[in-house]
Specification:
Blueprint (H helix, E strand, L loop, with lengths): L2 E4 L2 E4 L4 E4 L11 E3 L1 E2 L2 H6 L1 H4 L3 E11 L2 E5 L4 E5 L10 E9 L15 H5 L14 E10 L8 H6 L1 H4 L3 E8 L20 E6 L2 E6 L4 E2 L2 E2 L11 E11 L2 E12 L9 E3 L9 E5 L13 E5 L12 E5 L1 H6 L9 E7 L4 E6 L8 E6 L14 E6 L4
Parallel strand pairs: 3-22, 5-6, 8-10, 13-17
Antiparallel strand pairs: 1-2, 2-3, 4-18, 6-7, 6-9, 7-8, 9-10, 11-12, 11-16, 12-13, 14-15, 16-17, 19-20, 20-23, 21-24, 22-23, 24-25
Length: 385
C-alpha cells in the first residue's frame, strides 16, 4: 500500500485520506522521566515498558555471596547493589530497570558489573532474549514508611496486602491512560468503564464504573478533565503485574497536597521503539462509533516519519462480502504528543456501524535516533452506536 504526500493531506491508492497535524520533529537526547512506583511482578510482566525507567519499589535486599536480589514474600528479581547502599528489612528501593536482552554485551553500563556472578551461571553461550533476564540497578534505599492507610501509593507498592479488600483512595484523573502511566489495561475490562488515577509517583486503574457522579462527568478520552481529582471506593485486584480497583462509589474531591516525583535522566542508550498500549485494544469489539484511537510508543518518535506511514482502513474482505467494490473512505487526523509519546487518531465523521477497522504502523516510522519501529497493526470492530 503506497501513500503519496501532498502538503498535509496523505492520499493512499486504496482511497484512504489522512490529514496530519504534527508537532516539529525533535532531536535525539536523553529524556527526563519521572520515577514510577512499581512491584516486582509489574517489572517482570512488562519489561519493554519499564526497561530503562527509574523506579521505586518495596522489597528486602537479600545477599548470598555475589548474588543479590530484591525480594518480597512471593517474588524476587536480581539486583546490582553498590556496597555503600544498605538496608535491612523492608525498604523502599530506587533504581533503574535493565532488560539485559535489550542491551548489548559491550554496553557501558555493564562494563563494571559482574553479570555472571549476579546470576550464578556460567558465561552464557548466547546473549539472553528480550524479557529473559531482568535486573534492577539500585541507586539508593530509604526506610519504608509504615502503611497506616490504604493510599493510592500504598496500594500500588503493596497490592498483595490489600487484594480483595475494599479501600477508599484519592487520585488525579488521567483518563484512559492518556499519559501512558500504565503498560496496558486490566484483563476483561470494558473500555468505557476503565480509567487511570495517579498520585505522586504511583498510578493504578479503576474499572467497573464510568467517571460520572453527582456534579461531575469526566471524559476518559480527553485531557480537559485531567486536572481534577476523584475519590474512589472499591475492591483491590492484582493480576500479572497490573493493579486496579473495581469501583462501586465515585466522588469528585479536592486536589491533594503531594510531593511531585523528581525528574531523572535515564542512562539507557536509545532502543528501537515499539507500541506499548492502544485504545481501543487489539480485537476489541463493540467500539463506539465516535471513538478516537490512541497508541503509545516505548520511545520518542520522529514525527516526520509518521507522514504517509500510518494506514487507516475498513476491512477490504468485509467490504467484498457486502458486495462493495472497495471499502468506504476514512478521513482521519493524526496528533502526536511528544511529552507522552502518544499518537492520537481522530476521525472527521463517526465511523460506520459494525465495520472492522485496521490501523497499520510500518517500520518506516522511526525513533528520534533513526531506529525503525517494530511493525504493528491494530484491528477492532465497531458497535451499533
Amino acid at each position: 500500500m503506497t501513500h503519496h504526500v501532498r502538503a498535509v493531506v496523505w492520499t493512499a491508492a486504496c482511497g484512504v485520506a489522512v490529514a496530519a497535524t504534527l508537532l516539529p520533529a525533535g532531536t535525539a537526547r536523553a529524556q527526563p522521566m519521572s520515577r514510577r512506583a512499581v512491584t516486582i511482578p509489574a517489572i517482570t510482566a512488562f519489561p519493554s515498558f519499564y526497561n530503562g525507567q527509574p523506579v521505586v519499589l518495596r522489597a528486602e535486599i537479600r545477599r548470598d555471596g555475589q548474588r543479590v536480589s530484591l525480594s518480597t514474600a512471593a517474588h524476587s528479581v536480581p539486583a546490582f547493589v553498590p556496597t555503600d547502599v544498605s538496608g535491612s528489612g523492608l525498604v523502599e528501593v530506587r533504581g533503574e530497570v535493565w532488560d539485559v536482552g535489550r542491551m548489548q554485551p559491550d554496553d557501558f553500563r555493564l562494563s563494571t558489573k559482574d553479570l555472571r556472578g549476579l546470576l550464578g551461571v556460567e558465561p552464557m553461550a548466547s546473549w539472553p532474549r528480550p524479557g529473559e533476564v531482568i535486573v534492577i540497578n539500585v541507586t539508593s534505599t530509604a526506610p519504608a514508611e509504615p502503611q497506616t492507610a490504604p493510599t493510592l501509593r500504598n496500594v500500588v507498592l503493596d497490592p498483595e496486602r490489600y487484594e480483595d479488600q475494599r479501600v477508599t483512595i484519592k487520585g488525579q484523573f488521567r483518563g484512559r491512560n492518556l499519559f501512558g502511566d500504565q503498560p496496558q489495561a486490566p484483563p476483561g475490562g470494558d473500555g468505557r468503564r476503565e480509567f487511570v488515577l495517579r498520585s505522586a509517583d504511583a498510578s493504578l486503574w479503576v474499572t467497573g464504573k464510568q467517571p460520572r457522579g453527582r456534579g461531575f462527568s469526566f471524559d476518559i478520552n480527553s485531557r480537559l478533565d485531567t486536572r481534577r481529582w476523584l475519590e474512589v471506593s472499591g475492591v483491590v485486584k492484582e493480576d500479572r503485574g497490573l493493579v486496579w480497583i473495581v469501583a462501586d462509589e465515585l466522588a469528585e474531591t479536592s486536589p491533594q497536597a503531594e510531593k511531585a516525583p523528581e525528574p531523572i535522566v535515564s542512562s539507557a542508550p536509545p532502543i528501537p521503539p515499539e507500541v506499548l498500549f492502544s485504545a481501543p485494544t487489539s480485537e476489541e469489539t463493540d467500539v463506539p462509533l465516535d471513538t478516537n484511537v490512541r497508541v503509545q510508543f516505548s520511545r520518542d518518535i520522529d514525527v516526520e516519519t509518521l507522514r504517509g506511514n500510518v494506514r487507516v482502513a475498513y476491512s477490504a474482505a468485509q467490504a467484498s462480502e457486502r458486495g462493495e467494490p472497495q471499502p468506504p473512505r476514512i478521513d482521519a487526523t493524526l496528533n502526536y504528543n511528544r511529552g507522552t509519546r502518544v499518537l492520537e487518531i481522530t476521525f472527521a465523521e463517526p465511523l460506520e456501524r459494525f465495520r472492522q477497522v485496521t490501523i497499520v504502523l510500518g517500520e518506516e516510522i522511526k525513533g528520534t535516533d533513526g531506529l525503525p519501529l517494530k511493525p504493528y497493526s491494530l484491528t477492532f470492530t465497531l458497535g451499533g452506536s
